[in-house]
TrEMBL record, chain A:
This is Carbohydrate ABC transporter membrane protein 2 (CUT1 family). InterPro entries: MetI-like, MetI-like_sf. Residues 93-284 form the ABC transmembrane type-1 domain. The chain crosses the membrane at residues 37-59, 99-119, 126-144, 164-185, 206-227, 263-284.
From TrEMBL, chain B:
One of its GO terms (biological process) is transmembrane transport. It is a multi-pass membrane protein. Keywords: Cell membrane, Membrane, Transmembrane, Transmembrane helix, Transport. Its main location: membrane. This is Carbohydrate ABC transporter membrane protein 1 (CUT1 family). The lineage of its organism: Bacteria, Bacillati, Actinomycetota, Actinomycetes, Propionibacteriales. It is found in: Cell membrane. The chain crosses the membrane at residues 12-34, 73-95, 107-127, 165-188, 209-232, 267-291. SUPFAM superfamilies: MetI-like (SSF161098). PROSITE patterns: ABC_TM1 (PS50928). Pfam families: BPD_transp_1 (PF00528). Belongs to the binding-protein-dependent transport system permease family.
Length: 299, 299
């Protein structure tokens, strides 16, 4: 299995598959099962340690964050750090939302159209075009960042949300195209397209009548992927925007950086900025995995 | 001829905007960056730039600071890949036979991937506080409480490059191990159960079953994982920025150095660093892509 193949969501399905009989039968004693369980719980603890610290610290008063009491529960629980973090981050949150949602929708739509053509309405050289597109997924953005800034200045694009929407849409096209190409190649039989063609349906008709109605799972994967990666992006934000027009990652970096750091507020801020993607992960986890599989190579 | 163009023409037309956009924003801008890297547009340079050939590259590879960033990146990559593969593989091995509550373990192990590296960097920066002993904070304080004094260490402020960069790798391992687990888990579940049964009928021990039957089946996944992780490590930026700030020589990698160089308005050198990063990624990814495409065609 390759990363490209994994993009179809096959991987996500394969993980959820219950192990078949025979896998569990031999070689598994009760003792080894207990050991396995204990280990799994220990690792669970390891992964959750930062979560515990963040949570308790975010409810502490400023006098309560001394070295000795760092791992204790708050002496008095307070919402003050949350209020403080929210006051700072609120405008950034709004900008991030107004940026991530359109960017995710636009690049998904383009990806769907591209993916359909590359999978089921092929033309001579389609493979070459696919490789041409795919390469854009792997580049370190440092290699394009400086002329990108110059281009935006030359085009007189408003700095901030509009700049970032354009950047994320363009550099999101490869991954969305890849996901949709593999999705259509798996779920749409060639015969359906052939018979539509025989009936005289053109590309647009076939896409709108046959493909779009069965694209929902594909859209869920790309929308989640794009939303998450745009929301979590810091590199474009740092290079293309400033504190007064940047997204939430920039706001959090400012809140938690600087000379005198308010730890409780920083932790509350880390939680606040993570909520949107965490909610998506909790509600739509199985599609999330599909996107992760495909997107891990993206810059 | 006319008829054939009518069938595939619309498809090519759909892809045209994407090809033009990526042609400019990926390939065009890379060429632009490369072009800048061949000039003397250094700090404070006014007026038209002149070409200096590969001088900037030559200077980079003799400059202590750049070589330091490359060494840091090398150590970081090794520590990150080894750590992530170990945890990912162990978790997949523990889960692959199916345990009660498997989806809970899976979701928790995977959730750090939904969080931005800035948010996790803010939290880990707090956990990796270098103070020790009486004044210990963060993880060191936890070790103090648990009487595991020997585990306390100065983390990324340590003298040795290995300790320093392994401390940076630790949060990255925390974020990415779940993803590798998902990859391997999908691999295990994709192996036909007949293979296991045949091996058991032949009297193979559990160890031999894994060593000689199951692991060889996973080698394509291991290769994918290696490429994906290497690729992530080469671009790691946000995490270092959030944990140590961008101005630490001891944790500086090329991605960070590029940002610092840009802040000094040395456009030629910043471009050269971006192009070197691209070259490293290309060396890693292009053979892998070729291999992937060949595999797809064989199927």
């Amino acid at each position: 299995m390759t990363a490209v193949e994994a993009a179809t969501g096959h991987t996500a399905a394969a993980i959820r598959q219950k192990p078949r009989r025979g896998a569990t039968a031999d070689g598994t004693t009760r003792r080894s099962r207990t050991i396995r369980y204990v280990l799994l719980l220990l690792f669970l603890l390891f992964v959750l340690i930062p979560v515990y610290v963040v949570l308790i610290t975010s409810f502490k008063t400023s006098g309560d964050t001394t070295a000795a009491s760092q791992w204790n529960l708050p002496k008095t629980w307070t919402l003050e750090p949350w209020r403080k973090a929210w006051d700072v981050l609120q405008p950034y949150m709004i900008r991030s939302l107004s940026l991530a949602i359109p960017a995710a929708i636009i690049s998904s739509l383009i990806g769907s159209a591209n993916g359909f053509v590359l999978a089921r309405w092929r033309f001579p050289g389609a493979n070459l075009v696919f490789a041409f597109i795919l390469f854009g997924m792997f580049i370190p953005y440092q290699a394009v960042m400086l002329p990108l800034r110059t281009t935006f200045t030359a085009l007189d694009v408003t700095r901030g949300v509009p700049t970032l929407i354009i950047a994320h849409c363009i550099y999101g096209i490869p991954i969305c195209t890849l996901i949709f190409r593999n999705y259509y190649a798996t779920i749409v039989p060639n015969e359906i397209i052939e018979s539509a063609r025989v009936d005289g349906a053109g590309l647009v008709q076939t896409y709108l009548r046959i493909i779009l109605p069965i694209s929902i799972s594909g859209f869920v994967v790309t929308l989640i992927w794009q939303f998450t990666s745009v929301w979590n992006d810091f590199l474009f934000a740092l290079f293309l925007t400033q504190q007064n027009n940047g997204p939430v990652t920039l706001g959090l970096a400012a809140l938690a950086g600087g000379q005198k750091v308010d730890y409780a507020a920083s932790m509350a801020g880390a939680l606040i900025t993570s909520f949107p993607t965490l909610i998506v992960y909790i509600l739509l986890g199985r599609w999330f995995i599909g996107g992760l599989m495909a997107g891990a190579l993206k810059g | 001829m006319h008829g054939r163009i009518r069938t595939w023409g619309p498809g090519a037309l759909v892809l045209l905007p994407t090809v033009l956009l990526l042609g400019y924003f990926v390939y065009g801008l890379i060429a632009w960056s490369f072009n800048t890297s061949l000039t003397d547009r250094h700090t404070g340079r006014k007026g038209p730039a002149s070409y200096v050939g590969f001088e900037n590259y030559g200077n980079l590879f003799t400059e202590e600071r750049f070589l330091n960033s490359l060494k840091n990146l090398g150590v970081l990559t090794v520590a990150f890949i080894v750590g992530t593969l170990i945890f990912g593989l162990i978790w997949a091995l523990l889960l692959e036979k199916g345990v009660p509550g498997e989806s809970v373990f899976r979701s928790v192990y995977l959730f750090p991937m939904a969080i931005s590296m800035i948010a996790s960097g803010v939290v880990w920066g707090w956990l990796l506080n270098p103070s020790q002993g009486e004044d210990a904070r963060g993880l060191n304080r936890l070790f103090e409480i648990l009487h595991l004094h020997f585990l306390e260490n100065p983390w990324w402020t340590a003298g040795s490059r290995w300790t320093t960069m392994a401390s940076i790798a630790l949060p990255a391992v925390w974020q990415m191990s779940g993803y590798i687990m998902a990859l391997f888990l999908a691999g295990f579940r994709g192996i036909p159960p007949e293979l296991r049964e045949a091996a058991r009928v032949d009297g193979a021990s559990e160890f031999k079953l894994y060593r000689h039957v199951l692991f060889p089946q996973l080698s394509p996944i291991a290769l994918s994982a290696l490429i994906i992780l290497g690729h992530i490590s080469l671009k790691l930026f946000d995490l270092i920025y959030a944990i140590t700030g961008p101005n630490q020589f001891r944790t500086e990698v090329p991605a960070i150095l590029m940002w610092n160089t840009l802040l000094r308005s040395d456009l030629a050198k910043a471009s050269a660093i971006g192009i070197v990063m691209l070259a490293v990624v290309a060396v890693l990814v292009i053979p892998y892509l070729a291999w992937t495409v060949r595999q797809e065609n064989e199927q």
